[in-house]
Specification:
2 copies of one chain form a homodimer.
Chain A lengths: L9 H19 L4 E2 L1 H8 L3 H9 L11 E2 H12 L5 E6 L3 H7 L2 H5 L2 E8 L8 E2 L2 E5 L3 H8 L3 E4 L6 H10 L4 E4 L12 E4 L3 H20 L2
Amino acid sequence: MEIRRKIPSAPSVRRLPSYLTIVKQLQHEGNEHISGALIAREMGLEPIQIRKDLAITGITGKPRIGYPAGALADAIERFLGWYDVQDAVLAGAGNLGSALMGYREFQSHCLNFVAAFDTDSRKIGAGIHGIHVLSMETLETEVRRRGVKIAVLTVPAEAAQAVTDILVRAGIEGIWNFTNVKLKVPGNVVVQREDLSSGYAMLSVMMKTRNRTEKESP
Amino acid sequence: MEIRRKIPSAPSVRRLPSYLTIVKQLQHEGNEHISGALIAREMGLEPIQIRKDLAITGITGKPRIGYPAGALADAIERFLGWYDVQDAVLAGAGNLGSALMGYREFQSHCLNFVAAFDTDSRKIGAGIHGIHVLSMETLETEVRRRGVKIAVLTVPAEAAQAVTDILVRAGIEGIWNFTNVKLKVPGNVVVQREDLSSGYAMLSVMMKTRNRTEKESP
């Protein structure tokens, strides 16, 4: 597989986990080969788009046969680095943090929460979905001691930058940021900002477009 | 403003809520005009991308002055239909559902949860973030009675299609689907599927790319 220097298109990367779910499901149902057309139907996208997206992983399908199911799943997981367990900490064990800790898909994507951190004394010492909640005061020591590189940030907006500074000092290299704060981090740390409103924007535009089309062509 | 027939590019639409947050914040800080370059810096994107994205709302900035802050916020909200309150129901009041009900940004985007529905008798009758949890058995009647058109689906995967069928019968026109199930719906219903793993895929690829670059150019 050729290693590419360029960061591939974000929408393509964002679709890969859905492809992986579909491929594993079809494989589980006994399919040895999976066509781009079949994935396209499941995703509601054009087959050409599927082929382009999957090409970033280095795999190419065969005309009329498709992709070997096992090799396709492997190629996606290898491209994403989802073959080795990656330890992560979660900062902010509120509702969203708890939901993410309980999200079963993450385990199959090798994302392993080793601990969660919160300032609420009623939560500290407890377990959420089997993950220990520790005091936010121990965040820096624990991250450093365990050598964790990934942090999921679900603290209130007011605390986002202060907690980020601690994470950076402790050696975190990647932050998945669910707050709507633009974090200041040094160049060696990457931040993926997640805005839950993005999906609602898509839904709103699709509903508006559909209503307009219906009114125009009754 | 010209009404466009085409659905605009998904990544552009997905970025609009972040632009809206930035614009409102800058406006709140006293800026009457906001340049594309300023938004670009906040977002970590190229100015040309910002101009292209904002153009879908029908607004164009002036060279060296930028966009009038109020008009820009209005254009984004109008494009997304986020100026009238939209009632919604939430099906599945687990951790993720609770997190979404408590997500403050949705209120400022005119998304109003009128009720949540669950099968857990310990939750039914209670309130989560001030929103009533009702029995899933009353879902169809309540949605129909209140004339709600939007549903957020956060039920377990096994229940996703059955609950969707009820929502469709009750007159729901847009489903924001947080399960990883591809829902079968009639052509007049739109579904926005949200995969929480998408952001983790982005973070994984960014971390891999950065590590490779660092190793190659120490």
